[in-house]
Amino acid sequence: MNRLPVPARVLKVALPVPLPTLFDYLPASGGSQAAVGARVLVPFGRRKLVGIVVETDAVSRVDPGRLLPAVAILDEGQPLLDAGLLKLLTWCWQYYKHAPGDVLQTALPPALRKAETRLPGPPLEYRLTEAGHNRLEQAPGRAKSQFALLSELAKRPLSAASLAQTGPRWRPTLARLMEQGWVQSAEQAREVPRVSPGPELMPEQVQAVRAIKQSAGRFQCHLLDGVTGSGKTEVYLSVLETLLSEGKQGLVLVPEIGLTPQLLRRFRRRLGLEPAVLHSKVSEGERLAAWESARTGRSRLVIGTRSALFTPMPGLGIIILDEEHDASFKQQDGFRYSARDVAVKRASGLEVPVILGSATPSLESLNNAAAGRYQWHRLRQRATRAAMPAWRVLDVRHHTLFSGLAEGTLEAMGETLSRGEQVMVFLNRRGWAPVLMCGDCGWHGLCGRCDAHLTWHRGIGQLWCHHCGFQQRVPAFCPECRADALSGAGEGTQQLEQVIQARFPDAPVLRFDRDSTRRKGSFDEQAEAVMEGSPCVLVGTQMLAKGHHFPEVTLVVVVNVDQSLFSADYRALERLGQTLVQVSGRAGRVEKPGTVILQTCQPENEALAQLINEGYEPFAQAQLEERVQAQLPPATYQALVRADAHKRDDVERFLKAAKRCFPAGKASLFGPMPAIMEKVAGRYRMYLLVQARARSELHRQLDSWLDELRGLPAGRKVRWAIDVDPQDL
Ligand SMILES: [Zn+2]
Ligand SMILES: [Zn+2]
User: Which residues of 430-459 are buried (b: 16+ CB within 10 A; e: fewer)?
Assistant: First the structure.
């Protein structure tokens, strides 16, 4: 360490490069001192990069003579990220073992990653002048739209965002009003919520609201475990109502598909304010404006998806995570953080309460609630009093399937459509793994060493255990009944849409998946069409299980249940339970209860029977016990080293080298083994699995191992990354 001449301070800067370190710079010559949390422009090789000052220090590991000065301090040295947030982000890169620069980038809106972007000034609001009020006294005349806008503004001043809600042609109308001197703009004041009373709460809701409010001002995690229709959102709103009126800010995180116009409308109406909306489909400019408005405390409520978690909010008083079990809260590439876990960490650092809400809580959260670490609030009464649908398990052994659908299923679909009702065909994709099954007796492969289900790797003709790495050749006949009936479970579902359309030519078939709903707003347009209620068939994946309620759907068909029952991914069964409960909650209403058909080769499966007959909580409890017995998370802690390359040999060579330098300790290492989806976009993917009984043991070994891994020559031929607390294999 070299000491610098006083008073020069070394800036430790996080830069958007994939290196596990901060970089040292001197302050810009002649410029102002960069504050911690501010953006700086610095030279890096031949480029100039935008970085964030994470700390300043009197010493540097670099020879002071070789230190370069920053080119410029951006944003006049205003810290964009406060000390608490920087501390949280520092914890994140140490815990998830990811490059600090990349982690800090996640916390910034994309526009601020560019040096030329400046922070926007305070937004304007529009108010009526004296002359404007006088104009309102007179008859509207022919200028109806001008008059309407004047009357709106007479009630209260409005921001551009609120004006946009009044209609499409507000801009020219407003310009006309300003020309006349009837309206003037001014810097927007801090938002004040104007709460409208909500519905009367049921006793369970009252209890939850009271307990959550009592924890205001200190850290407490609340698990709001409420069946579909039990009014979880009303609990959030009641808590927010109190905290916002006390001058605090609120942060609400929802899954990627959960941020619907209906949800925003509900928050807007009930709390009487304009939420700052942060997610990837909002334009860069709007996102920057929303972020800045939260950072300066002007916006009182932020609603967003995963990365909105890192929004700076000086008055943050509560964090709410809706559908906490949802897999989209875990980022699946780059900085692989869990927004749920980091939200709890952020709340604990700020000493504020956090609510995790779900109709189907994750096993991790149930485990924490059972251990008393979280307060557990159960809502079992349905506010809507809609009946739960009836389940029908359809044994499809010995049946011909038409692109995944049995004849019995198609008949039921036909009956529903002819009654003028709607059908939803649900393709379960989460935890999906290719499984080899016997179509006659329902046999599937189990690992002899650890009872995990074997995954079929068709390309290499092998069955693999993804837990311990056991492998065997694919048998020619069913080992159980000797039938020549082995095939992949749930195959051919890609053609599902065509088969349905051919069978029911008069019914519109609407597809809901990532491809068909990528365009902004297209999901909502399709959903609106379904709401109109004429008979149709909805075909879709997980996104159908979230957010929307389709009251005219009275038949739900779940096609590929077996792939989850036998998935190598130990979370697949938990996910299946969550999905089935969520999907069934979307269908039917009071007068017309729905039916859910589950097609399976395993009609006697115990977990499935328990879910259907006893409900989610006993099912989840049994799953949790199995995890403890099998020594799987949340009873243990895991990390993966994932690697991929165009050549399988390169991947295997790197992971074998990595395995050889794994330090001795209490954590165990399994693999290398192929990823469940081994080949994606021409690249072979494999992994090593590290597992330990305690988090601290896992991290101690990982930290010393990672330094060695970064130096391995075999690592240069592959792309590799570490995934702490992985959610899939
Ligand atoms: Zn068989
Ligand atoms: Zn095994």
Answer: bbbbbbbbbbbbbbbbebeeeebbbbbbee
- Structural domains in the chain? 4-113 (3.40.1440.60), 124-187 (no CATH), 203-379 (3.40.50.300), 390-433+490-625 (3.40.50.300), 637-724 (3.30.70.600)
Distance 71 CA to ligand 1 centre (A): 70
List, in sequence order, the alpha helices (H) in 441-514. Answer: 496-503
At a CB cut-off of 8 Å and minimum separation 6, what does 435 contact? Answer: 444, 453, 454, 455, 456, 488, 489, 490, 562, 563, 566, 567
Residue-averaged pLDDT of the chain: 88
Order of strands across the sheet with 124-128? 158-159, 124-128, 183-187
Closest CA to 352 of 276, 250, 254: 250
Q: What is the pLDDT of residues 13-68, one digit of tens each?
A: 999 998 889 999 998 877 667 789 999 999 999 999 999 999 998 888 888 788 99
Ligand 2 mean position, distance from CA 672 (Å): 13
Find the angle CA(234)-CA(236)-CA(240) to the nearest 5 degrees: 115
Ligand 2 center from residue 455 Cα (angstroms): 11
User: How many whole angstroms from 658 Cα to the centroid of ligand 2?
Assistant: 21
| Largest pairwise CA distance in the chain | 91
268: left (phi over 0), alpha (psi -120 to 50) or beta: alpha
Cα(649) to centroid(ligand 2), Å = 23
CA nearest to 436, candidates 601, 678, 681: 601
Ligand 1 centroid to residue 443 C-alpha, Å? 5
CA of residue 559 to ligand 1 center, whole Å? 21
User: What is the rounded CA–CA span in Å between residue 656 and residue 324?
Assistant: 36
82 neighbors 312 (Cβ within 8 angstroms)? yes
Separation between Cα atoms, residue 122 and residue 299, nearest integer Å = 11
Rounded distance from Cα 440 to ligand 2 centre (Å): 25
pTM of the model: 0.87
Question: Going by C-beta distance under 8 Å and a sequence separation of 6 or more, which residues neighbour residue 527?
Answer: 548, 550
Rounded to the nearest angstrom, the distance between the alpha carbon of 13 and the centre of ligand 2 is 45
- Strand extents, DSSP E, 336-449: 353-358, 374-379, 390-395, 401-402, 405-406, 422-426, 436-438
How far are the Cα atoms of 81, 83, 311, 618 from residue 55, in angstroms, in the given order? 12, 10, 19, 49
- Which ligand is nearest to the Cα of residue 442, counting in written order? 1
Each residue's pLDDT tens digit, 224-255: 999 887 899 999 999 999 999 999 999 999 99
CA 326 / ligand 2 centre spacing (Å): 27
**Least distant ligand from the CA of 466:** 2
Q: Which tens digits make up the pLDDT trace of 661-678?
A: 999 999 999 999 999 888
Ligand 2 centroid from CA 689, angstroms: 12
Contact criterion met (CB below 8 Å) for 109 and 50: no
* CA of residue 470 to ligand 2 center, whole Å: 5
Using alpha carbons, select from 665, 611, 664, 676 the residue that is nearest to residue 640: 676
Three-state SS for 19-69 is: CCCCEEEECCCCCCCCCCCCEEEEEECCEEEEEEEEEEECEECCCHHHCCE
Give distance in angstroms: CA of 620 to centre of ligand 1.
30
Ligand 2: distance of its center to the CA of 404 in Å?
A: 29
C-alpha 624 – ligand 2 centre gap (Å): 19
Q: Are the C-beta atoms of residues 525 and 563 closer than 8 Å to each other?
A: no
- Burial class from Cβ neighbours inside 10 Å (0-12, 13-18, 19+) for residue 61 reads exposed
Residue 519's pLDDT band, with cuts at 50, 70 and 90, is low
Distance CA 699, CA 721 (A): 15
